[in-house]
Amino acid sequence: MKRFLHFTALVIAVFAIAVTLPSLLSPMQAVPAPTPLDQNVNFTPPDVTAPDNRQGGTHRGCQLREGLFITPLIPESNIGLTLTESPTFFVYVSQPAAQVEFVLLNEDESEVVYESSLKIDKAGIVGVSFSDKDKTKNIEVGKRYVWSFALACDPQERSGDYIIKGWMQRIEPSASLKSDLANPDPRARLIAYAKNGIWYETLATLAQMRSLAPDDGRLKTEWTQLLQSQKLEAIADKPLVQSF
Question: Could you tell me the pTM of the whole model?
Fold first, then answer.
């Protein structure tokens, strides 16, 4: 009887091993490497340049009231990349202004893509965005566009406007970038944008994260470092005050 019980136990044990062994020996499924969300936001400028140095801008010689000026938040190269048809543009306005005009044009400035008149209530950094329905032309992949912010010295004589210009180019994301941007975590997307030199989305994503968590010291530091990296240290500590 004992011999029979031992034999039965042995059979059960062998069967259990036979059932379990294939699952143990089956190949392990590949697990995507997690995005290192603790790493810093390091913007890597792409190898692109555009006419007109950002710091000099394009002025028409008018005299604004003392202390009033605008500074575009644009890379030192004067051109930023975007992946979208509706990027957000940022500019620093040093004083409240009754009228600031934003215009987006095609590369040779012969066609208006979008234009808007803004009233700036507070000094600080302003974001301007628009939806697809607001555009008169499509923003095409591979093409460059010129945008400008203008302050009117004399509303009756617009030829003397004070104008600052910048450039934008829309590109198609690589397969690896598309994969990175599929991550639902906004910080993971922020790191991906910065690493790939996508200026407009890097700036807009970080600005949105700051607006949702205004007391987050790390986000404030990263914003400051991002602007400093592109020689915008003079406005790196200015507040985000309005969006249009």
Answer: 0.79
